Amino acid sequence: MARTLINVPPKAKRGQIIEIKTLISHVMETGYRRDETGAPIPRDIINLFVCSYNGTEIFRADLHQAIAANPFITFFTVATETGTLEFRWTDDNGQVEKASARITVE
Amino acid sequence: MTGESLSPVTRRAVLIGVAGAAASATLLVRRAEATPEMMKAAIHRVIGESPVRKGKVALDIPPLVENGNTIAMSVSVESPMTETDYVKAIHVFNEKNPQPDIISVHLGPRAGKAAFSTRIRLADSQNVVAIAELSDGSLWSDTVEVIVTIAACLEYN
Fold first, then answer.
1. Nearest Cβ partner of B101 from A66, A69, A75?
2. What's the predicted TM-score (pTM) here?
3. Closest CA of chain B from A100, distance in Å
4. Do the chains contact at B110 and A56, CB–CB below 8 Å?
């Protein structure tokens, strides 16, 4: 569906607050535009973004048409343990794009 | 005589026509942009009727933006983010885009810091409102007036 870009620090101290940056390529078509022939272009946006840390959901965002194309979202989490951060983006058609990143916590 | 008997019908037809035109014009206006009332309705839908206080929330958007298609926005909330005192959710709304919702984020004590950032679209100069929902149920907000010189969507109309 789309290209993703994730930025998670590879290493962190236990209890440290880390910043996570995520980007996905997507048109975020609002449904309010028309093509050259005047026909409305159907809405197609990513409406849900979820991040899980070793299986536990730590951040969730409901997105609307007012989010710019190629949604960029940054947020924070406490580095609790070594493991995997999983990212999931869901679009209007129910398609899911996944990405993940490893983090080592000392 | 003929004219008089016809006139009520004609007047009614005209009135119906005018009312219909006015109604469809209103509908068109409604479709083109949300209003502050629509934003209030959206806020009530999301957070209910509880009172919202000003403070604790910092909504950071440049006050003057050139391109409404992509505007950097970040929101942070003053909170210790402990198990007993944390920010549950942050919702952002606008007044004049076709839809009043922008984003709702859900977080918890594990976030460490109640903040996020993204990039948004604004169709016109308007107020943007961020509302934070705390674990104790209280609601806090910040409002920023943004002036947009090139609106999102315009280039396609």
1. A66
2. 0.84
3. 18
4. yes
**pLDDT of res. A90:** 97
Report the amino acid identity of residue A3: R
Residues B108 and B123 in one domain: yes
**How close A64 comes to chain B (CA, Å)?**
5
User: Which portions of chain A are predicted below pLDDT 50?
Assistant: none
- Average predicted confidence (pLDDT) for chain B: 83
| Cβ proximity of B107 and B114 under 8 Å | yes
Residue B72 lies in domain: 34-156
d(C-alpha B50, C-alpha B133), whole Å: 11
Q: What is the predicted ipTM?
A: 0.94
State pLDDT tens for residues B64-80: 999 999 999 999 999 99
Q: How far is B69 from B89, CA to CA, in rounded Å? A: 25
Query: Which residues does chain A have within 8 Å of residue B30's beta carbon, measured at their own beta carbons?
Result: none
CATH number of residue A53's parent domain: 2.60.40.10
